[in-house]
Fold this sequence. Notes:
Layout: H1 6-12, H2 18-24, E1 32-34, E2 40-42, H3 45-49, E3 57-63, H4 73-86, E4 91-95, H5 100-104, E5 112-113, E6 116-119, H6 121-125, H7 131-151, E7 158-163, E8 167-169, E9 179-181, E10 192-194, E11 196-198, H8 203-210, H9 214-223, E12 225-229, E13 234-236, H10 243-249, E14 257-261, E15 266-269, H11 284-293, E16 296-300, H12 305-320, E17 326-331, H13 333-339, H14 352-372, E18 377-382, H15 389-401, E19 406-409, H16 411-414, H17 420-430, H18 446-458, E20 462-465, H19 467-478, E21 486-489, E22 509-518, E23 523-528, E24 547-548, E25 554-555
Parallel strand pairs: 3-16, 3-17, 4-15, 4-16, 8-11, 17-18, 18-19, 20-22, 21-23
Antiparallel strand pairs: 1-2, 2-14, 5-6, 6-14, 7-12, 9-10, 12-13, 14-15, 22-23, 24-25
Helix pairs in contact: 4-17, 7-8, 7-10, 9-10, 13-14, 14-15
Amino acid sequence: MEVKSDIEIAQACELRHIRDIAAAAGVDEAYLEYYGRYKAKLDLKLLSDRSRRPDGKLVLVTAINPTPAGEGKTTTTVGLADGMRRLGKNAVAALREPSLGPVFGVKGGAAGGGYAQVVPMEDINLHFTGDFHAIGAANNLLAAMLDNHIQQGNELDVDVRRITWKRCVDMNDRQLRNIVCGLGGKVNGVPREDGFDITVASEIMAVLCLAESLEDLKARLGRMVVAYSRAGAPVTAGDLRAQGAMAALLKDAIKPNLAQTLEGTPAFIHGGPFANIAHGCNSVMATRTALKMGDYAITEAGFGADLGAEKFLDIKCRLAGLTPAAVVVVATVRALKHHGGCPKADLGREDLNALEAGLPNLLRHVENITHVYGLPCVVALNRFPTDTSSELKLVEDKCRELGVNAVLSEVWSKGGEGGMDLAREVVRLCETPGKFTYAYELDAPIEEKLEAIVKKIYHGDGVALTPAAKKQAAELTALGFGGLPICMAKTQYSFSDDASLLGAPEGFTVTVRNLKVSAGAGFLVALTGDIMTMPGLPKVPAAEKVDVDANGRISGLF
């Protein structure tokens, strides 16, 4: 049987008009702003007009640490929402928008896969409704206003050696990581070192995704720290009087987007901060909309649960006052065997020893969800054709020892039908009382919060701050930022800060080399390892396979 690519499956689907999808979600046409037939933005009045409706149940989909074998978190999220609707439940999905960098770099498309996708996948993977372009424009406007302020006399006494705000572009471009700008004489600016971040690493992305309204967005933009004066005082976007113009550029971008799955399930797709740099979740506005429109809102957090779920729970849920009803941890036999030391070329062969060696990665994530955060949990075992019955049984048995069920998910090949068993277990869990707690208290000192994350979530021995990071922690505390939550920036491939330590490593220390404040977003970023805010393209970029024919039909997007 011929295996179709994701884009071929998506293009063969007959999409429903977005007004019909809105009707299925209970959204009146008066709230729709059409972007063609199959996409729409939602008027922000929708939330206030639906404020009296009780919230639905919030379900988080997370995963084990990612591997080259693949896990299928977005695919599972989409298939679970479709499966719940097949059970007659009013379920909707709340997802992130893909960044162009990974789409053309390593990953390819990021709208789900197989028969569990959101569509139109080409639009979602490319420009969609222009949100990322608006964020990039606002980011670069602020950069231009900062440099112009310095050029025009520098009334705020900005120390050009302590400018923290970078320009951005939504593309993997390592050439722009470190640049020198302002060359060419006095009229062309003040020469200084600068650099670019990828758009999804811009603080404006994080701000947009945590803002509760347009007014809140504007206030958060004004609080963003862009530099420090020569006296050491923070210089903000508000000091540059830039927040109004930036908010004007973002007035449409803040509105959640509505799309659909292949089976017509409403999907609110909005925002996309990186999970190993920022908090890795879709917008609060989209999540709130999903909760008001559905009885079940199925959402996801980026990368493994040590990054995405931790930040979703300790940052997003805390700041927005959200409480998940259940958590799904996605795993595959192939990925667990990779964590157990099995070479990629041999992942299709039965190897119970490698699987048993890799299972602690999954079990540690599950225990974090149930023991640290006190939430009901299910393992979604994303099935591959090469999985054997003995391998599947081993995973199920080990999960059962923790009091958690592992349910086979076949949404990639069967769509919602393949997610109905998982949907039944999620519905059951949503009626199971949880005792949601955070991994740390906000009023703890910065180093104690870092220590709590490393010991409780990563299961390391502790945290070590470089002398520079220790000095930054003291400065940030003195400036009044010590009570903010922590956003850890570390490798996604390991519980530790060393990408080569797979499985469930122990006896390691996480080194924090830099601490900075994202005052608009409302968290502190702790940088570990060699995390970069501007990725590069691989040796063979996914872009080499992308094409478009004379009729405008795109191919190669995964």
